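Hey,
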Amino acid sequence: MGNNTMEKKTKRDLDKGWAWVVLLAAFLAQMLTTGHTQNSGIFFSIFLEAFQLPRSETMWIMAAQGTANSLAGALGGFLVLKYGARITMIAGSLIFGLSFAVMYFVETLPMAVICYGCGGIGIPLLLTGIIEGTGQYFEKRLYMVMGFVASGAGIGTMVIGIELEWSLVTLGWRRTMLMQSAIILHICLCAALIFNNEIPQKMTIDQNGTSKTEKRPMRTYWCDTKFILLSFGYVTFTAGRDITQYIMKDLYMSSSIVLYPYSYVVVSFGVGSTIGRIISGFATIALSPPMCNVFSTLLCAFSIVVLLLSHSGIFLLVGVGFFGFFTGQQVVYQKLCWGWLFGQDVMASLFGYSYIFTGIPRFGVPPVAGFIKDETGLYSAVILLATFFMALRDRKSVV
């Protein structure tokens, strides 16, 4: 008598009921998390003014958080498998939020690098928890739901960006850090609503009637060609995107076309990012996520060139909007690619493990970008460097 295979159904409220509460919680968590990470340009300008040091040195603060963010990706992937989305997100919220609170007491650059950098550990815990929690409650509508959840980042960019500009003027940078800490810690409330909802797994029933769950060992994915290529694409995209976001406010405020407050730039980016993330969920109905990845990467590189060629305030705002639109799409597609290629049940974990490799550009590239600006006095070469990384990613997007 041979073995029989059946599927163990353990999901509750799939695409209905409590799933809509989880959707709202994930949306808010995404809004508060990515709303802070995508306003990194504002934080960079804060540190420039606070420490009065060259850009090449100040960039180490951003590099530290980005590197810690990347290296903790595997930790996020491990924790969601071991403890579930809720505990992982609560831990991430505490680490990320408290790092801002500690910045209130920082007086020197090395301490800022350590304190602000350690907060990056909480970011992948939050992002993998959001993916895992959402993926467990949706199946038929997963792609559209992921697009909606990701759109919270665009709205968060607008809301947090405007709030940051107001707080800096009203409270000063140290009290602003305390304010951001309090805001981020509210993610714990969102995480508390995301209960574990196990993924269905195939079970083998042997001739003795004993059941055994089949699960591919995680280490076997690491040598998979598709995993390697997708991770490489993620690395180069991260380099190009982060460089552009870090310098965005400094680029705008040091240009000769400052006609509007920087909050206009934040709103333009946020609107573009929100629309791009929502549309990405529908675009995958017609094309596969990897193919959508190719087109949006190419257009993202083009939008960075538009920023370089901007000679008027309106032109720059349009360019920032397009940059937000296509980077927003990329964030959705790079997550959906894992589920499309390897399966929904390992989507969050593989995303977390691939996150490690983005630590390579996040550690070295920001200080190099700051050095280029210090030496040349121009951001043109920095923008071209970001475009190069985007174009390099496009050649590895189809896997």
